[in-house]
Specification:
Distance between the termini: 30 Å
Helix content: 25-40%
Structural class: alpha+beta
GO molecular function, one term: 4-hydroxybenzoate 3-monooxygenase activity
Pfam family, one: FAD_binding_3
Strand order of the largest sheet: 5-4-13-14-15-12-16-19
Radius of gyration: 21 Å
InterPro entries: FAD-bd, FAD/NAD-bd_sf, PheA/TfdB_FAD_monoxygenase
Organism: Streptomyces marispadix
Enzyme class: oxidoreductase
Length: 387
Protein backbone atom coordinates (compact mmCIF):
# COMPACT_ATOMS: atom_id res chain seq x y z
CA UNK A 1 0.00 0.00 0.00
CA UNK A 2 1.67 3.21 -1.18
CA UNK A 3 4.40 3.97 -3.73
CA UNK A 4 6.64 6.11 -1.56
CA UNK A 5 10.22 5.28 -0.57
CA UNK A 6 9.17 2.58 1.92
CA UNK A 7 6.67 0.84 -0.33
CA UNK A 8 8.84 0.93 -3.44
CA UNK A 9 11.97 -0.22 -1.64
CA UNK A 10 10.07 -3.13 -0.12
CA UNK A 11 8.45 -4.04 -3.45
CA UNK A 12 11.79 -4.07 -5.28
CA UNK A 13 13.37 -6.29 -2.63
CA UNK A 14 10.44 -8.73 -2.61
CA UNK A 15 10.43 -8.98 -6.39
CA UNK A 16 14.18 -9.65 -6.40
CA UNK A 17 13.50 -12.63 -4.12
CA UNK A 18 10.75 -13.95 -6.38
CA UNK A 19 8.04 -13.06 -3.87
CA UNK A 20 4.87 -11.92 -5.64
CA UNK A 21 3.59 -8.51 -4.66
CA UNK A 22 1.29 -5.77 -5.93
CA UNK A 23 1.77 -2.06 -5.21
CA UNK A 24 -1.43 -0.01 -4.90
CA UNK A 25 -0.99 3.79 -5.12
CA UNK A 26 -3.73 6.43 -5.02
CA UNK A 27 -1.76 9.04 -7.00
CA UNK A 28 -0.46 8.99 -10.56
CA UNK A 29 3.08 8.07 -11.48
CA UNK A 30 3.74 11.62 -12.64
CA UNK A 31 2.60 13.00 -9.30
CA UNK A 32 4.80 10.83 -7.10
CA UNK A 33 7.83 11.38 -9.31
CA UNK A 34 7.50 15.16 -9.05
CA UNK A 35 6.30 15.60 -5.45
CA UNK A 36 9.05 17.50 -3.56
CA UNK A 37 9.89 16.04 -0.19
CA UNK A 38 12.98 15.28 1.89
CA UNK A 39 16.44 15.49 0.40
CA UNK A 40 18.94 14.13 2.94
CA UNK A 41 19.89 10.47 3.03
CA UNK A 42 22.12 9.16 5.79
CA UNK A 43 25.14 7.32 4.50
CA UNK A 44 24.18 4.00 6.12
CA UNK A 45 20.89 4.09 4.17
CA UNK A 46 22.64 4.71 0.84
CA UNK A 47 25.10 1.88 1.50
CA UNK A 48 22.21 -0.44 2.40
CA UNK A 49 20.47 0.39 -0.89
CA UNK A 50 23.75 -0.09 -2.75
CA UNK A 51 24.26 -3.57 -1.26
CA UNK A 52 20.80 -4.54 -2.45
CA UNK A 53 21.27 -3.19 -5.97
CA UNK A 54 18.91 -0.22 -5.51
CA UNK A 55 21.40 2.66 -5.62
CA UNK A 56 21.88 3.88 -9.16
CA UNK A 57 24.70 6.01 -10.57
CA UNK A 58 22.92 9.29 -9.84
CA UNK A 59 22.48 8.45 -6.16
CA UNK A 60 26.02 7.08 -5.77
CA UNK A 61 27.40 10.19 -7.48
CA UNK A 62 25.27 12.68 -5.54
CA UNK A 63 26.80 15.40 -3.42
CA UNK A 64 27.88 14.39 0.08
CA UNK A 65 27.86 16.77 3.04
CA UNK A 66 29.66 16.37 6.33
CA UNK A 67 29.17 19.67 8.09
CA UNK A 68 26.46 22.19 8.80
CA UNK A 69 26.39 25.72 10.15
CA UNK A 70 24.38 27.33 12.93
CA UNK A 71 24.02 31.12 13.05
CA UNK A 72 23.12 32.76 16.34
CA UNK A 73 23.51 36.39 17.33
CA UNK A 74 25.45 37.18 14.15
CA UNK A 75 28.03 34.44 14.90
CA UNK A 76 28.62 31.38 12.75
CA UNK A 77 29.08 28.02 14.50
CA UNK A 78 30.36 25.19 12.28
CA UNK A 79 29.47 21.61 13.23
CA UNK A 80 31.76 19.13 11.44
CA UNK A 81 29.73 16.00 12.06
CA UNK A 82 31.32 14.13 9.14
CA UNK A 83 34.81 14.38 10.60
CA UNK A 84 33.49 13.54 14.07
CA UNK A 85 31.44 10.51 13.02
CA UNK A 86 33.18 9.30 9.87
CA UNK A 87 29.87 9.47 7.96
CA UNK A 88 28.08 12.04 5.82
CA UNK A 89 24.69 12.93 4.38
CA UNK A 90 23.94 12.38 0.71
CA UNK A 91 21.92 15.18 -0.91
CA UNK A 92 19.34 13.43 -3.10
CA UNK A 93 15.77 14.73 -3.27
CA UNK A 94 13.16 12.13 -2.40
CA UNK A 95 11.38 12.45 -5.74
CA UNK A 96 14.60 11.42 -7.49
CA UNK A 97 14.81 8.30 -5.34
CA UNK A 98 11.13 7.52 -5.97
CA UNK A 99 11.69 7.88 -9.72
CA UNK A 100 14.66 5.49 -9.54
CA UNK A 101 12.69 2.94 -7.53
CA UNK A 102 9.61 3.08 -9.80
CA UNK A 103 11.81 2.57 -12.85
CA UNK A 104 13.59 -0.39 -11.26
CA UNK A 105 10.36 -2.05 -10.13
CA UNK A 106 7.89 -1.32 -12.92
CA UNK A 107 10.00 -0.74 -16.04
CA UNK A 108 13.05 -2.94 -15.51
CA UNK A 109 11.67 -5.80 -13.40
CA UNK A 110 8.08 -5.77 -14.66
CA UNK A 111 6.59 -5.36 -11.21
CA UNK A 112 2.83 -4.97 -10.75
CA UNK A 113 1.90 -1.44 -9.69
CA UNK A 114 -1.57 0.14 -9.84
CA UNK A 115 -1.54 3.93 -10.02
CA UNK A 116 -4.56 6.16 -9.48
CA UNK A 117 -6.39 3.60 -7.33
CA UNK A 118 -9.61 4.98 -5.82
CA UNK A 119 -11.74 3.86 -2.87
CA UNK A 120 -8.87 1.76 -1.54
CA UNK A 121 -9.77 -0.44 1.43
CA UNK A 122 -8.04 -3.17 3.41
CA UNK A 123 -10.03 -6.14 4.72
CA UNK A 124 -9.49 -9.15 6.95
CA UNK A 125 -6.16 -8.22 8.45
CA UNK A 126 -6.81 -10.53 11.42
CA UNK A 127 -7.31 -13.49 9.08
CA UNK A 128 -4.81 -15.60 7.15
CA UNK A 129 -6.07 -14.17 3.83
CA UNK A 130 -6.38 -10.39 4.04
CA UNK A 131 -7.44 -8.53 0.91
CA UNK A 132 -7.24 -5.10 -0.67
CA UNK A 133 -9.96 -3.61 -2.86
CA UNK A 134 -9.90 -0.50 -5.03
CA UNK A 135 -11.64 1.06 -8.00
CA UNK A 136 -9.73 0.94 -11.28
CA UNK A 137 -9.43 4.53 -12.59
CA UNK A 138 -9.71 3.46 -16.25
CA UNK A 139 -12.64 1.03 -16.11
CA UNK A 140 -14.42 2.11 -12.94
CA UNK A 141 -14.58 -1.55 -11.88
CA UNK A 142 -13.68 -2.78 -8.41
CA UNK A 143 -10.50 -4.83 -8.19
CA UNK A 144 -9.48 -7.21 -5.42
CA UNK A 145 -6.18 -8.76 -4.39
CA UNK A 146 -6.20 -11.56 -1.83
CA UNK A 147 -2.81 -11.89 -0.18
CA UNK A 148 -0.78 -13.27 2.71
CA UNK A 149 0.22 -9.91 4.17
CA UNK A 150 -0.41 -6.19 3.70
CA UNK A 151 2.44 -3.69 4.05
CA UNK A 152 0.92 -0.33 4.96
CA UNK A 153 3.25 2.28 3.46
CA UNK A 154 0.55 4.80 2.57
CA UNK A 155 0.96 7.46 5.25
CA UNK A 156 -1.03 8.57 8.26
CA UNK A 157 -4.23 9.18 6.27
CA UNK A 158 -3.97 6.07 4.12
CA UNK A 159 -6.25 3.06 4.06
CA UNK A 160 -3.87 0.89 6.08
CA UNK A 161 -4.13 2.82 9.34
CA UNK A 162 -7.89 3.20 8.96
CA UNK A 163 -8.24 -0.60 8.71
CA UNK A 164 -7.02 -1.00 12.29
CA UNK A 165 -9.94 -0.96 14.73
CA UNK A 166 -10.01 1.54 17.58
CA UNK A 167 -7.75 0.36 20.36
CA UNK A 168 -5.78 -1.95 18.08
CA UNK A 169 -2.71 0.30 18.31
CA UNK A 170 -1.68 3.34 20.33
CA UNK A 171 -0.63 6.60 18.73
CA UNK A 172 1.76 8.78 20.74
CA UNK A 173 1.86 12.37 19.51
CA UNK A 174 3.99 15.38 20.40
CA UNK A 175 3.28 18.88 19.07
CA UNK A 176 6.24 21.24 18.77
CA UNK A 177 4.00 24.31 19.08
CA UNK A 178 5.33 25.96 15.91
CA UNK A 179 4.78 25.87 12.18
CA UNK A 180 7.35 25.85 9.40
CA UNK A 181 6.87 27.53 6.05
CA UNK A 182 8.51 25.17 3.56
CA UNK A 183 9.84 26.93 0.48
CA UNK A 184 11.48 25.90 -2.77
CA UNK A 185 13.26 28.68 -4.61
CA UNK A 186 14.64 28.80 -8.13
CA UNK A 187 17.88 30.20 -6.79
CA UNK A 188 21.40 28.73 -6.54
CA UNK A 189 22.43 27.73 -3.02
CA UNK A 190 23.94 30.60 -1.05
CA UNK A 191 26.21 28.40 1.06
CA UNK A 192 28.08 25.16 0.48
CA UNK A 193 26.40 23.51 3.47
CA UNK A 194 23.13 23.38 5.39
CA UNK A 195 22.61 26.55 7.40
CA UNK A 196 20.36 26.89 10.46
CA UNK A 197 19.47 30.42 11.52
CA UNK A 198 18.55 30.77 15.21
CA UNK A 199 16.88 34.12 15.66
CA UNK A 200 14.42 35.82 18.06
CA UNK A 201 12.05 36.39 15.10
CA UNK A 202 12.02 32.68 14.34
CA UNK A 203 14.07 29.81 13.00
CA UNK A 204 15.23 29.70 9.36
CA UNK A 205 17.09 27.11 7.31
CA UNK A 206 18.92 26.91 3.99
CA UNK A 207 19.42 23.54 2.25
CA UNK A 208 20.78 22.98 -1.25
CA UNK A 209 18.68 20.70 -3.44
CA UNK A 210 20.48 21.15 -6.77
CA UNK A 211 22.81 23.71 -8.38
CA UNK A 212 19.70 25.73 -9.30
CA UNK A 213 17.21 24.94 -6.51
CA UNK A 214 17.37 25.71 -2.78
CA UNK A 215 15.06 24.55 0.00
CA UNK A 216 14.32 27.12 2.70
CA UNK A 217 12.33 26.92 5.91
CA UNK A 218 10.90 29.75 8.01
CA UNK A 219 9.34 29.30 11.43
CA UNK A 220 5.81 30.66 11.50
CA UNK A 221 2.78 30.48 13.79
CA UNK A 222 1.03 27.08 13.83
CA UNK A 223 -1.91 27.12 11.47
CA UNK A 224 -0.48 30.01 9.44
CA UNK A 225 -1.35 30.32 5.74
CA UNK A 226 1.17 30.35 2.91
CA UNK A 227 -0.84 33.25 1.49
CA UNK A 228 0.53 35.42 4.30
CA UNK A 229 4.05 35.06 2.88
CA UNK A 230 4.45 37.00 -0.37
CA UNK A 231 7.79 37.16 -2.17
CA UNK A 232 9.17 40.26 -0.45
CA UNK A 233 8.26 39.09 3.05
CA UNK A 234 9.85 35.69 2.46
CA UNK A 235 13.18 37.10 1.35
CA UNK A 236 13.19 39.85 3.98
CA UNK A 237 12.75 37.29 6.77
CA UNK A 238 15.33 34.93 5.28
CA UNK A 239 17.89 37.74 5.05
CA UNK A 240 17.24 38.74 8.66
CA UNK A 241 17.16 35.30 10.23
CA UNK A 242 20.15 33.91 8.30
CA UNK A 243 22.34 36.99 8.71
CA UNK A 244 25.82 36.51 10.21
CA UNK A 245 29.18 38.23 10.06
CA UNK A 246 31.22 37.03 7.09
CA UNK A 247 28.33 35.17 5.45
CA UNK A 248 27.65 35.55 1.74
CA UNK A 249 24.42 37.33 0.76
CA UNK A 250 21.49 35.13 -0.22
CA UNK A 251 20.93 34.31 -3.88
CA UNK A 252 17.31 35.27 -4.37
CA UNK A 253 14.91 33.91 -6.96
CA UNK A 254 11.33 32.93 -7.65
CA UNK A 255 9.64 30.92 -4.89
CA UNK A 256 8.04 27.95 -6.64
CA UNK A 257 6.58 26.21 -3.60
CA UNK A 258 5.06 27.51 -0.38
CA UNK A 259 3.35 25.28 2.15
CA UNK A 260 2.96 25.43 5.93
CA UNK A 261 3.94 22.33 7.90
CA UNK A 262 2.26 21.47 11.17
CA UNK A 263 5.33 20.61 13.22
CA UNK A 264 4.49 17.53 15.22
CA UNK A 265 5.75 14.00 15.77
CA UNK A 266 3.92 10.73 16.33
CA UNK A 267 4.69 7.05 16.85
CA UNK A 268 2.32 4.12 16.35
CA UNK A 269 2.81 1.14 18.66
CA UNK A 270 2.95 -1.62 17.71
CA UNK A 271 3.71 -1.23 14.01
CA UNK A 272 1.99 -4.58 13.37
CA UNK A 273 -1.66 -5.52 13.69
CA UNK A 274 -2.64 -9.00 12.55
CA UNK A 275 -1.22 -9.45 9.06
CA UNK A 276 -0.79 -5.72 8.50
CA UNK A 277 2.70 -4.26 8.94
CA UNK A 278 3.04 -0.48 8.92
CA UNK A 279 6.08 1.33 7.53
CA UNK A 280 7.14 4.92 6.96
CA UNK A 281 4.70 7.74 7.77
CA UNK A 282 1.92 5.23 8.39
CA UNK A 283 3.85 4.19 11.49
CA UNK A 284 5.67 7.32 12.59
CA UNK A 285 6.31 10.93 11.71
CA UNK A 286 9.37 12.96 12.61
CA UNK A 287 9.12 16.70 12.00
CA UNK A 288 11.85 17.77 9.53
CA UNK A 289 14.06 19.34 12.20
CA UNK A 290 16.88 16.82 11.79
CA UNK A 291 16.05 15.23 8.39
CA UNK A 292 15.10 11.82 9.76
CA UNK A 293 11.79 10.82 8.15
CA UNK A 294 13.05 9.44 4.83
CA UNK A 295 15.79 7.48 6.55
CA UNK A 296 13.36 5.89 8.99
CA UNK A 297 11.09 4.86 6.11
CA UNK A 298 13.99 3.11 4.39
CA UNK A 299 14.98 1.37 7.63
CA UNK A 300 11.44 0.02 8.01
CA UNK A 301 11.42 -1.27 4.43
CA UNK A 302 14.79 -2.99 4.77
CA UNK A 303 13.81 -4.72 8.01
CA UNK A 304 10.43 -5.79 6.65
CA UNK A 305 11.98 -7.15 3.46
CA UNK A 306 14.43 -9.22 5.49
CA UNK A 307 11.55 -10.52 7.63
CA UNK A 308 9.48 -11.54 4.59
CA UNK A 309 12.50 -13.20 2.99
CA UNK A 310 13.08 -15.33 6.08
CA UNK A 311 9.39 -16.23 6.25
CA UNK A 312 9.08 -17.34 2.63
CA UNK A 313 12.51 -18.91 2.21
CA UNK A 314 12.96 -20.60 5.59
CA UNK A 315 9.57 -20.58 7.25
CA UNK A 316 11.06 -18.37 9.96
CA UNK A 317 8.44 -16.07 11.47
CA UNK A 318 10.72 -14.44 14.06
CA UNK A 319 11.55 -11.47 11.82
CA UNK A 320 7.89 -10.64 11.30
CA UNK A 321 7.13 -11.13 14.98
CA UNK A 322 10.02 -8.85 15.96
CA UNK A 323 9.59 -6.32 13.16
CA UNK A 324 7.84 -3.66 15.25
CA UNK A 325 10.32 -3.81 18.13
CA UNK A 326 13.29 -3.73 15.75
CA UNK A 327 11.97 -0.65 13.95
CA UNK A 328 10.91 1.19 17.07
CA UNK A 329 14.42 1.14 18.56
CA UNK A 330 15.60 3.48 15.80
CA UNK A 331 12.29 5.37 15.70
CA UNK A 332 12.47 6.41 19.36
CA UNK A 333 16.17 7.29 19.11
CA UNK A 334 15.38 9.59 16.19
CA UNK A 335 12.40 11.08 18.01
CA UNK A 336 14.58 11.84 21.01
CA UNK A 337 17.27 13.44 18.87
CA UNK A 338 14.70 15.39 16.88
CA UNK A 339 13.24 16.89 20.03
CA UNK A 340 16.73 17.72 21.35
CA UNK A 341 17.62 19.58 18.15
CA UNK A 342 14.23 21.27 18.16
CA UNK A 343 15.02 22.86 21.51
CA UNK A 344 18.21 24.32 20.00
CA UNK A 345 16.64 25.76 16.87
CA UNK A 346 13.41 27.00 18.46
CA UNK A 347 14.77 28.13 21.83
CA UNK A 348 15.90 31.60 20.72
CA UNK A 349 12.45 32.39 19.27
CA UNK A 350 10.44 30.89 22.13
CA UNK A 351 10.15 34.16 24.07
CA UNK A 352 11.52 32.30 27.09
CA UNK A 353 14.99 33.55 28.16
CA UNK A 354 15.64 30.25 29.94
CA UNK A 355 14.99 28.14 26.82
CA UNK A 356 17.07 30.57 24.78
CA UNK A 357 19.96 30.23 27.22
CA UNK A 358 19.76 26.44 27.18
CA UNK A 359 19.75 26.43 23.38
CA UNK A 360 22.89 28.58 23.27
CA UNK A 361 24.60 26.33 25.81
CA UNK A 362 23.81 23.20 23.80
CA UNK A 363 25.06 24.84 20.63
CA UNK A 364 28.36 25.87 22.23
CA UNK A 365 28.89 22.43 23.71
CA UNK A 366 28.27 20.47 20.50
CA UNK A 367 30.44 22.76 18.35
CA UNK A 368 33.30 23.38 20.79
CA UNK A 369 33.67 20.10 22.70
CA UNK A 370 35.01 17.22 20.61
CA UNK A 371 33.62 14.64 23.03
CA UNK A 372 30.14 16.15 23.04
CA UNK A 373 30.32 16.74 19.31
CA UNK A 374 31.08 13.09 18.60
CA UNK A 375 28.00 11.95 20.54
CA UNK A 376 25.74 14.41 18.71
CA UNK A 377 27.29 13.61 15.33
CA UNK A 378 26.67 9.86 15.74
CA UNK A 379 22.98 10.51 16.34
CA UNK A 380 22.71 13.14 13.61
CA UNK A 381 24.06 10.75 10.98
CA UNK A 382 22.25 7.72 12.40
CA UNK A 383 25.32 5.60 13.14
CA UNK A 384 24.41 5.23 16.83
CA UNK A 385 20.65 4.89 16.46
CA UNK A 386 20.10 1.24 17.36
CA UNK A 387 21.71 1.36 20.80
Amino acid sequence: MGAGPAGLTLANLLLAEGIDCVVVEAESREFIEQRPRAGFLEEWAVRALERRGLAGPALLGAQAQGDCEFRLGGTRHLFRYGALSGHRHIVYPQQFLVTDLVRAYADEAGGDIRFGARDVAVHGIRTESPSVTWTDPDTGRERTVVCDFVAGCDGARGSSRSAIPEGGVEVFRHDLGVGWLALLAEAPPSAERVVFGLHPQGFAAHMARSPQITRYYLECPPGDSADNWPHERVWSELRTRLAARGADPLNEGEVIERRVLDMHNYVVEPMTYGRLHLAGDAAHLVAPVAAKGLNLALNDALLLADAFRAYYREGDESGLEGYSDACLRRVWQYQDFNRWVSEIVHGPSSGDPFRAGVAAARLRRMTRSERAGRAVAALYIGSDADH
